[in-house]
Please model this.
Amino acid sequence: MTAGVEMRRSEMRRSLFSFQRGLPDGPELMSALRSMEEETDTNIRSLTWDWDGEALPNVMESDDCPRCVPETLQSAEECFQCVSENTEYPFLLYLPPDFDARCSYPVILFLHGIGERGKEAFALADYGPFRYIRGGHTLPFIVVAPVLEAEHHWVEDDRGEETDRQMIRLKRFLGQILDRCPVDHGRILLTGLSMGGRGAFKLACFLPDTFAAAAICCGRAAPREHPDRPHYDLSALKIPCWIFQGMEDTVVNPEHALAAARHLRRLHPNGRLRLTLYPHAGHNCYDFAYQDPGLYAWFGEQRKEGK
Model:
């Protein structure tokens, strides 16, 4: 890259992404990104805002993305266990290769999307952290993923009003995991995609003193048609949060991710928040997010204050 192109890129970054302007809306952002790509002859694959307790974000762009489909996949049965007895939900379980029951481990709770409802637990092996592991990676976490029954949602509606039915069940489920597995209670981590991302937003607010951090992929915290009107009391979501969104998503309007980030910045101006946008990805942006080793490194840095 020539010095002139790098200078133009730096100037455009400063003008576009200074938090003093606030996050632009989706169309304005995409228009600016297209102009940047044309000016610099670059295909921007991801863009991340990182507010680490600061008023102004560190903005990182990349013209590279992790492979969303690993070249080879290990069999699910070799990597994971399916557990269905004496538990609120059947679930898929991953234990680190050097697992020792005398030690304690951080745990990742993963909430699946709508397409996996009512399936056997091994169906979750194609998604989220499980797909990353099947690609030949190991993680120093216990990973658990409950399977929701068919026709249900992590965020349930009863005659147009949300209920806490699944939130109460997830609280019981998490308690069962803590009783069953040697978990470090200060390092309980939450993530979800699509329907599970919406569930993760609500669960993090429902159990504000439980999780050390949350990573949410293409989820929403507001009614489908009103991204700027959050369902949940986001003032309770004080933990570090990383939001991922594909800007070409036709299932979940990208405005939901931008609006959630704006709300969280307004409510918690000194909080730790990351927002990663994939300008050329659709709803399956979760494939890129969960194949990124940086997500698991970030999870590994998190600990609940006071635990």
Observations:
- The two ends are 47 Å apart (CA to CA).
